[in-house]
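does this look right to u?? pyridoxal-5'-phosphate version
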Amino acid sequence: MTLRPETLAAKAVHAIDEATGGIVPPIQLATTYARDARYELIEGRDYTRDKNPTVLPAEALLAALEGGAEARVFASGMAAATTAIRALVKPGDHIVAPRVGYYALRNWLEKFCARWQVHLDIVDMTDLSAVHAALRKERTRLVWVETPANPTWDVTDIAAVADLAHAAGALVAVDSTCATPVHTKPIPLGADLVMHSATKYLSGHSDVLAGALVTPSVDEAWEAITELRHTEGAVLGPVEAWLLLRGMRTLFVRVERQSQTALSLAQRLSSLSDVTVVYPGLASHPQFAVAETQMVDGFGGMLSIRVGRRDPLAVVRKLRVWLPATSLGGVESLVEHRASVEGPTSPTPKDLLRLSVGLEHEEDLFEDLRQALA
Ligand SMILES: Cc1ncc(COP(=O)(O)O)c(C=O)c1O
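got this back:
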């Protein structure tokens, strides 16, 4: 019987404690493992670094949810992304990355490429002709995609970008943090690597820093990533892995509700005067057509509002339900003025507030925004 993703998540891939029958897996804190009487390793386990028994079920579940062959978890989303990029490219290679996306990764990429003589083109990833023009045959090693992308929720057509990249001999990596496996599965669409900040929706409770990579196949590129994580040790600790696995059990119900509330809020906020709502589930969004085809069962829990002539920080100060904090994907709703956080080089419009929709009652969330925007 082939189990559906919702079932695999709820059962945490059958991660019961075989020793006691406990239906919640124990946390194995040991860093090292004794050999048996024949001096053989038990199940190949020698050291915690990449064989911790609390970490492995989280990786197995992630691989299953993404339809991948294997997954590796990391100490953070940034650790996952930077390990992948450093394992895949060498000096002289070329990377194509998106203009809109998680700003800390773009900043790191610019510094990394300058330092290691890697050529970098930052393009509008939603413009396929721009992507095509940027690709250099046999020179481009990697195309980095984030969809929907922070903070204007640009939706990239993964299948179309993968076709273009593969024709040029390049790999495609997709930061699917905001889509989650609930709404988008990049691997069946052609991605060669899926990346998550598991700090966000996968863990879901704003209490774990974690990252993940998922591969469609165990090949040379994946082995290079695995080796780099092993040698550098940007692994996830067992307590965090346990919390991640626990969070993923409720992934589908959380994200489905967050997406429903986000869509409803997006529609209702659009009727307020001098407020522009940016959400891929609205027909007004520039990539609504791509989002409708690519995303399933909703458009995610992230939206932004542009508050026009109002002072955006004054709006934030009036909010009582939405917490003014960075990050996203938790059960509590968060608001953030991205231009302040991203600093003077930020391309984000100054009147934009990013909203991460949590699990509070929709009416409380709407009323709070309505009074702050009045
Ligand atoms: C889309 C996206 N990718 C990557 C990251 C980095 O993840 P982490 O904070 O787990 O390192 C973030 C964090 O905000 C993010 O929003």
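The mean pLDDT is 96. idk if thats expected tbh
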